[in-house]
């Protein structure tokens, strides 16, 4: 099971996350909201997720990710 999290409702981020879903089959796409990374990791561990990808953006343009 994989998780793909992104922050924001900007259309370019949503489209980028959808494209990453094609790369990671069976991924669950979620809005990160205001959660900090440590909270996300703890939640994923508690629910037996195997991988986490956090997508970052700068002014609406995806500019990085963490795995």
UniProtKB/TrEMBL annotation:
Protein species of origin: Prunus dulcis (Almond)
Molecular function terms from GO: rRNA primary transcript binding; snoRNA binding
Protein name as annotated: Brix domain-containing protein
InterPro entries: Brix, IMP4/RPF1
Start and end residues of each Brix domain: 1-67
One GO-annotated biological process of the protein: rRNA processing
Any one of the GO CC terms: Mpp10 complex
